[in-house]
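seq:
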Amino acid sequence: MSTPSVLGAWHRFSGSWPGRLLVSAAVWVRAPYFLTAAPVIRRLEPGRAEVSLRNWWLVHNHLGTVHAIASCNLAEYAMGVLAEATVPPSHRWIPRGMSVQYLAKAETDLLAVATFPSPPAFSDAREDVDAEVTLTDAAGTEVVRATITLRISPRPARTAVAA
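struct:
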C-alpha cells in the first residue's frame, strides 16, 4: 500500500487556508518534530517549495527573536516538502548534511523558499544533491541561508514475504 504524496494532497487541498493547513499538518504528523515550529506550506511544486513560520513565543530565543534552531527547522521542513514534491516514487531521499548562515535577526514571520539549483538526475546510481533554502523576513530581508545536501537513490526492490 502506498502513502499518499504530499504533492497530490497539495493539489487537492491547497485552494483554501484550511486545506493548506491540513496538508502542512499531515507533514507534522509524519515528522512530529516539526510541531514545535508549525510551518505552513504556501506554495509547492516540483523544484520549488515556499513555507512560512509564524513569529510567536514558542519559537523565540532569549532575545525575543526567532531562535536559530527554529530557523533550521523551517529550512529543513521546506527542503523536505521540496524533496517530496520533486523526487519520484521510484527514488528515496535522506538529508546528509546542512550548512547554515545566520545573516540578520529574525524579528518577524519568516518565509522559506527551497529549490534545487541543479535538478537531480534520478538515475540508477546514488547521487548527492544540494537544496538551497533562503529565509526572509516580512520586509524581504534575507535572515538565514541554508544548503542542505540530500542523498537520492533508487528505492530497493521489495521482495515478497512468504507466509
